[in-house]
Amino acid sequence: MTITSAELRQLYLDFFKEKGHRLEPSAPLVPINDESLLWINSGVATLKKYFDGSIVPDNPRIVNAQKAIRTNDIENVGFTARHHTFFEMLGNFSIGDYFKKEAIIFAWEFLTDDKWVGFNPDLLSVTVHPEDDEAYNIWLNEINLPEERIIRLEENFWDIGEGPSGPNTEIFYDRGPEFGDDINNPELYPGGENDRYVEIWNLVFSEFNHNPDDTYTPLPNKNIDTGMGFERMVSIVQNVPTNFDTDLFVPILNKIGTFTSFKYGDSVEKDIAFKIIADHIRTVSFAIGDHALPSNEGRGYILRRLIRRAIRYAKQIDINEPFMYKLVPVVGEIMKDYYPEVSLQEEQIMKVIKNEEERFHETLNDGINRLEVIMEEQKNKNSKVIPGESVFQLYDTYGFPKELTEEYVNEFEFTIDEEGFNKEMESQRTRARQARQTGESMQVQSSILSKLDIESKFIGYNLLNNSTEIVSIIKDSEFKENLTEGDKGFIILKETPFYAESGGQNADIGLIKNKSFEAEVLDVQKAPQGQHLHQIKILKGEMKIHDQVNTFVDVNSREGIIKNHTATHLLHQALKDVLGDHIQQAGSQVAKNNLRFDFTHFNSVSDKELKEVERIVNEQIWAHTPVEIEKMAIGEAKEKGAMALFGEKYGDVVRVVEVGPFSLELCGGCHVSNTSEIGIFKILSESGIGAGTRRIEAVTSKEAYLYIDKKLNVLEKSAALLKVQEEEIPTRINRLFDQIAEIEKENESLQAKSAHAQADELLNDIETINNMNVLLKEVEAKSMDQLRTMVDELRINMESGVIMLATEIKGKVQIVTNVSKDLTKEGIHAGNLIKKAAQICGGGGGGRPEMAQAGGRDITKLPEAFEEVRKMLNN
Asked: What is the full DSSP assignment across 272-334?
């Protein structure tokens, strides 16, 4: 019986759980607190905090199945057997526990034991680094693999720049001679470029730090990082020629076939379109499910590009209307055993994709027609390069990503002028193929904090001061015995009431002192093993290790924080009630004086919706609802309906914050005991901070009172200035607008009369140049409209001639020129005349042959400009 993909994934996880590994749930595709990555692109990407020592895991043995996105070779997807933009990595990891021998033995057992995968051992080969004799000997002597199936390759060294690095060993499966049997092919070996020997597992032995100066030093802890390509492993287990022929893709391919007369398998050429669509719908479904949205920048640009690439290829199989959104339920059904998020958010994902499809279909045919015209034009010029300006036009007008244009024209042996395109993009160009930041991907491992296993207990949920002992002092990355006046450093207390910054809640501040010293607590963060690490400054005296001290949390700061934190929970639920259940928290900051809440939402929030959200939060505050907090098993909390925050990792026992029947969230932060303590809630602003992400800033309690009081003061002053009651201000302002409009109307009438009068006088200043009536004059005008009106009046009175009037408005020269139609036929061009005049006055401008306007900076140059115009008319 053929094993299913879901069964294989579970088999892998079960094997390593039997070997004492803790299951790490798959993280969202959108990285959390990691600006170095656009997407989660590997199984280890979410575990960097363990590898760099910033957090010590409860269990050093970890196993995961991690969804990932890589888009560096999109153009290959659909054309090869194994390229994907969305894929899964199965991995087992050791953080300073077991090393090479155990990792190799585990891998061999899983692959060859009949209880698990049960591969024929004779079909497996491995590669190792030439200098890694330890791994070579384990394969040779422990596993008894023949020498000829252990290949030493120089590239078997994993190195991302700075951070953990080391040799690796890769395991290959021989698919048989039907996938390649040419003995003269120099690439036909495990590790070569061929389809016969397929890499199924990569075991990385992290034993060095790659330092900033390009030297390598041994890591304090040697780590194991392995990755198994899930899709290719499924293809081998299910004995099908490509990843697309597995149960991960076949239902999607079949569904695509219902929208066209073509079927998958009919032809190699048509199959490419099927594969591209199937791959891309998986990627965009999961990415949108993890709250990324299509846009013109960053990861949103990737999604837009994938959707539009799939639509373009759909035309090749006669699908000419939105259809991709209908594939989402199929994707969800295939993956729901381990990844239920697509099915759970099916409606929202379909809505987003359908919207994107409809937008692109509006311009797709016009864009392709335009591109074909451009190619024909270039062919007539004996050129095979599409100009950068044309590539930009297709992007800007028809929504064609540059890469889509490039891929399309490559089919006709054209290339694009990428440099020209980049110039056209200018500052707009923020593209997804570039890393969001160039920061380090992993920190260099430091052991001082990761090895610090001193016990420290947080007691600050109910206490804001206590007597305790200093159990550790750290300064300049070294343990110290003391700190003296003026010193800054870090300390750990045996028991502490100071909250360490986490979950969006700011750290506590305050004082620590005894008879010998006084220290200010500046910040509190969590050490890798969970202790609260207090950053302090000694204000006076001397602090010593093991001192008995008294702690004092700043009460005003804590009270402001807890009011804002509970208000954040109320705001979260109110947004769901008003905008919909798709709302997810995307970040927050809970400070003493204000709160900030980021959330996923496709559109801006209307004023009406904001007012409703604000009303709901305040009604919950005024309901005097008790806030109840208890610890319970994670399963029990989820059964109760507790809201887990997107991207957060939770332990087996969680802390649940319940605000009556209104709000239920998993939360480790500090809160009021009753909503009435919050007093009042006021939204200050709502804005977009990125594609599909909105931000609300708000205040509570005293800060809300001060904000409202400030607004009331403005209202009172406005009422006094307008000499009305406050409630009459809108009516009075509307009346003033009406009066202003009437005055402006009268003013325009007066200006027109003035322009008419001036025009009559100016007729006396007409001169004759080259048998032409010419009027060049500086006049008085209040606006460009008045200046144009004067020119129009003169034009009517001068049947034939050239008029150029200039004036100074707010320190700037403004010029208007008119040339009668009969003179334009003789080559007199208003735009050319005014361009020269404006240049002399330090400006620029132009226009049509009959009418033009321009501006300048220097009115004193006007006589010189007029003289130059006379010369031009004389020639």
From this structure: HHHHHHHHHHHHHHHHHHTT----SSHHHHHHHHHHHHHHHHHGGGT--S--GGGGHHHHHHH
